[in-house]
């Protein structure tokens, strides 16, 4: 008999667990593969370690440095992915299923590393928005900042995505300097343990940045405080129980839930069986039924179809499902694996029985279901099952009961309004898909669907070329939904990082606000010197370094020449009679000429240290510039971001944002904007 490993928890920097407790079995043949550990976890030690070791370690790094660690970690895990694929196989997942979990997880790390390096500062203070003047004299202003909370994040995950589930929560909380305690669902915790071991072995994270709990959470939630955060993915019932923990309520601990929901796909009435959209609809439903054996919180549970299309959709789905080979994913040709456990198999069977009562079974176990592979008769396999409900407005079960497996129900409707009403009967879902070829239908339906769904996919022939599909949450977009779906938000780009930070309003003089935010605020004190700011290397530049340029008077020749170069002969610049009838009462200069003239005033033409200008932000044209007006510019170093990168020649560089204000002879603001530049380092 082979030695069965006992899983271990990673607590306070050491691995705990030698005595076997709960047996964990292979989804493929029910053989014993691991045990959880029997040793009790000291959650006081875990929480104290996160606060006293994890938080200080993370705070020694800034946003940019933590983003760099995420990228390094993603590269490290990607180099060892085949080890994870081998273990993932035991969960019953196919290679494609495991790809979503394993490479979807590392891909999320890559995505947050990239977003962090582009959008976050080289500090631990994130300035949110522009400062707002709060007084008439310019000496008092206010703004918002986001800062690390100083607490820890507890991430409780479901069994279906043991790696992605951990990493998609870990990435934004790590960027936000929150040490994490991950608690995977027990059934597949062996895969989470494997990836956490790799992370620990990499040595890339500060001590205390990540801990792992195998087994129950004990009194962990009772030890959290207001600076901490809890996130949960799993059933709505479990979310409801955790949400009302007395300690979480008493200390106002943020609790975010992403719960299983009865997601839907709507075939719009404009689609016929001959349209490409019809095939896309059938393919998407079948993929969501069988991918991960239907064990996805985003899977399509309700297939909402026009009454006159029910037979066509049912026939095509039966044909497609009949071609799906189920069994051990190591057998060539197998496209659907097993449920995660025998308990899950029993749960799906019980819920299917409730759903089938009063509805028709169009396809299921009776239709030649026979898993392939050695020992699969003892595995946790389940037949893809398609039901038909002909009266969804009166049948509550199809909108209330979720069989968390390869089970979906076709529901007929009459008219798009009824389809949308059926979709809303799910009481809040993570995602819905609308398949239509008519933009007018999308414009009508999507705003209503969006009220009860966290994400809406519009699928038609044009989008299908690149579409990632109904069931794929993307790091750049929000994942979560209202009502039954938990009411929480995950992912969504840097939005997710903000969820783990504390927002505070700050009031004071512009000079003080600039000092706090690390970003120049208009009205703050500036530093002027004989050295042009563009002649300073990245390390030598300071926020507030500024240049007030000489003046330039705009002539008619400037306008004529710019029109000739640009091809812009808009009447406001060239037709004196028409211009007199406008709100300006005269011809005015091109806005982009004003920008170009300002650049001529402040640019230092010699090579380096400024290497390139790669964009403008927040551009506003405020006061028109007429012939004879005299303009000048103030250029001020607004923000520095050290991305810790070098070019192909090994020369270091950072990003500098410059505040530009262009004024006229009356000191009126003509235009304002930020210029983004790459600036060379001395080293």
TrEMBL record:
<dbReference type="InterPro" id="IPR029069">
    <property type="entry name" value="HotDog_dom_sf"/>
</dbReference>
<dbReference type="InterPro" id="IPR016162">
    <property type="entry name" value="Ald_DH_N"/>
</dbReference>
<dbReference type="InterPro" id="IPR011966">
    <property type="entry name" value="PaaN-DH"/>
</dbReference>
<dbReference type="InterPro" id="IPR015590">
    <property type="entry name" value="Aldehyde_DH_dom"/>
</dbReference>
<feature type="region of interest" description="Disordered">
    <location>
        <begin position="466"/>
        <end position="488"/>
    </location>
</feature>
<dbReference type="InterPro" id="IPR016161">
    <property type="entry name" value="Ald_DH/histidinol_DH"/>
</dbReference>
<dbReference type="Pfam" id="PF01575">
    <property type="entry name" value="MaoC_dehydratas"/>
</dbReference>
<feature type="domain" description="MaoC-like">
    <location>
        <begin position="544"/>
        <end position="654"/>
    </location>
</feature>
<protein>
    <submittedName>
        <fullName>Phenylacetic acid degradation bifunctional protein PaaZ</fullName>
    </submittedName>
</protein>
<keyword id="KW-0560">Oxidoreductase</keyword>
<dbReference type="InterPro" id="IPR016163">
    <property type="entry name" value="Ald_DH_C"/>
</dbReference>
<feature type="domain" description="Aldehyde dehydrogenase">
    <location>
        <begin position="36"/>
        <end position="448"/>
    </location>
</feature>
<dbReference type="InterPro" id="IPR002539">
    <property type="entry name" value="MaoC-like_dom"/>
</dbReference>
<dbReference type="Pfam" id="PF00171">
    <property type="entry name" value="Aldedh"/>
</dbReference>
